[in-house]
Amino acid sequence: MDGSQTAGRAPHLRGGVHTLTVTDASPGTMVRVVDADGRDVVTLVADRAGNAHLAFVPEHHTVLDEPTSIIDALASGDTLAAGEYRVFDDSAAPPADLGAVHVLAVDDVPDPSLYDQELAEGYGYLTVRDGVQLSVMVRFPDPGLFGPAPYPTVIEYSGYSPSDPDEPQPSTLLANLMGFAVVGVNMRGSGCSGGVFDVFSPAQAADGYDVVETVARQPWVLHGRPGMVGLSYPGISQLYVAATRPPHLAAIAPMSVIDDLWRQQWPGGVYNSGFTRAWLAMRDQQTAAGGQSWDLRRIESGDTVAEQNQRVRSQNFDFEQFGRSIENFRPMLEARRASALVDRIEVPVYLTGAWQDEQTGSRFALMLDSFTASPHVRFNLFNGHHPDGYSPMVVTRWFEFLSFHVAHRVQAVHEMIRAFAPLQFAEVFGFSTELEADRFSHHGDDVDAALAEYMAEPPVRILFENGAGHEVPGATAHRFEVEVESFPPPGVIPRRWWFDADGALAEEPPALAGADAYLDDPDAGELAYSMELLSDLNRFTLPQVPISWTRFDDAHRVAFQTEPLDEPLVVSGSGHVDLWLAPGTEDTAVQVSLTEIRPDGMEQRVQSGWHRPVHRVEDPQHSDELRVDYTFTAADRAPLTPGTWIRCRVPFAPVTHLFRAGSRLRVAVSTHGRDHPFWCFDNP
């Protein structure tokens, strides 16, 4: 919409969840927002489309008229508080009162009548509490295999393309094949949905609540209680939605998730200029008007709702710049920290994750003990890649969980699906295998008995040596597994080794004091070892993933290794390097890498960790004898003094790994870089 289309119209005000949006203003209109106490909060300038949007407010009243000023406000300000506001047009003389706006909080649930919307099979729209319309695609399973409605139903909710009518997402395809109806919903500001896009915002969480409650009222939803599914983005979104406690949500099944967006962007306090930067830049690109191509096709084919919804896209943030600008963790980010919210989730949870996830990493495991309000959790944990939640080794456990907690029946994979599965696995995962057998079929249709047996099993399943459990090397199949009551497993014994002379990793403290030195290599931050595959993420489902892993030379690292192990050793959980460091500069970044040196000399990466020692204070709520996290706040940050020794604990990301007898453990200390498939670092 250009300025000529807005001229002469009265601006339209909309209060959302911690947001305020102005549309239909004349371009350049000075929109001043005043709080209930009469204080000026901020002045916005309507853009060329006549739009202005407020989600973050600066510390002091200012005019947000350029992208740089908006980024500054995001970096130093706070979330727009819920409450009453008044809006004025300062372009007029005297200023014109445009009206009052009520800004909602996440818990401001609307009248239940909002949810009496009819959704039919196929494409459509759903209205949430602030009047924004979200694009929706409803897909029923094959009635020839599963009969007529009602169907057990799940929701896939993200900023990708879950409502694209032509290309269903992987979770949608799988759930349909297993007999579930699926409702694909695009978040506000993405696809053909209205509103302004904002990554993992309170507004998106509240929208998810409204989506669940609307879907639950559809006559074709079995039991009137849908679940949620999805891997990565649609997996992470489930955590935020479930934390709002929709009354009719049955269960969630998030896979390959993160625990905190800021720590994902700033691992150890250093900006992730690899995958996370690229992912956010792609969100910026795809949430632009027509940015996903299928939304543009709908508009060109006459979808006037989609066209109207996209007119406010001019106010979408540049989240790549946003992430880069917030160099220290700030209190306002706590509401977007998934690990701080999951203790509010009151429905069953199925979660999978890989220790070496090339996209999201393994910090997810730090919050597994926080699902304290959930009546039933099932965690499937393994070495491997980001997409492995869909793999043959765990996909039937996903269906098993959904069968019990959403469909309320004993899992039974249709024979036609079983016959079809090996061909699909060969196409997607590069090897042919059959689906795991139905584990509770001996109960027949006795759901209560089957569910009782299921819930009596240990909730944590740890798979070992994925990639070595099939005749095809690298195939997503594990060699063995253990089931335990929690993660880290009960009874884990802290084990300590000491850095010693001549590169030894010793069982006892060294007899003499000493030190080793290495040179910083800031340019190594750019050297991820699979960046060329970032444009083809599907390669990570295949048995062989080409990598180019290069070690630091001896001048740029120090490394210590044990003697060959006399017996096998399993490490499981969190760990750290307790490091005394005399830096050569006022700022540096430290990477620790744990590898296994096999008897044949092969070195295998097990896990890495990162820390920027200018962040001085550990977070007492998230640190213990083995686990380490930092506050990363500006107040707890101080420059280093070159040549002065400091002590810091550098955490390893969570991991489980079997070191076999005859192997050695090696720990290397270096600058950030070289040691991750996709993560790059803007080293100091």
Rg over CA atoms: 26 Å
Number of strands: 28
Sheet with the most strands: spatial strand order: 11-12-14-13-15-16-17-18-19-20
Name the structural class: alpha/beta
Shape: globular
What is the number of helical segments per DSSP (H or I, 4+ residues)? 14
The largest sheet is: 10 strands, mixed
* Cα-to-Cα separation, first versus last residue: 43 Å
Q: Which runs of at least 5 residues are low in confidence (pLDDT < 50)? A: 1-7
What fraction of the residues are assigned to beta strands by DSSP? 15-25%
Helical content stands at: 10-25%
- Give the rounded overall mean pLDDT: 94
Could you explain the architecture of this structure?
- With 684 residues, this protein is of the alpha/beta class.
- It is 19% helix and 24% strand.
- It contains 14 helices and 28 strands.
- The protein has a ten-stranded mixed beta sheet with strand order 11-12-14-13-15-16-17-18-19-20, sandwiched between helices.
- α8 packs antiparallel against α11.
- The chain starts with a helix and ends in a 14-residue tail after the last strand.
- The relative contact order is 0.09.
Could you give the topology of this structure?
Blueprint (H helix, E strand, L loop, with lengths): L2 H4 L5 E5 L2 E5 L6 E6 L4 E6 L6 E3 L1 E2 L5 E2 L2 H10 L1 E2 L3 E7 L6 E8 L18 E6 L5 E7 L3 H4 L6 E6 L11 H8 L3 E6 L15 H15 L10 E5 L1 H11 L8 E4 L5 H5 L9 H12 L7 H7 L3 H6 L9 H7 L23 E6 L22 E6 L12 H13 L7 H15 L17 H10 L3 E5 L15 E5 L13 E2 L5 E2 L50 E5 L7 E13 L8 E8 L5 E9 L34 E14 L4 E7 L14
Parallel strand pairs: 4-7, 13-14, 13-15, 15-16, 16-17, 17-18, 18-19
Antiparallel strand pairs: 1-2, 2-5, 3-4, 3-9, 6-8, 9-10, 11-12, 12-14, 19-20, 21-22, 23-28, 24-27, 25-26, 25-28
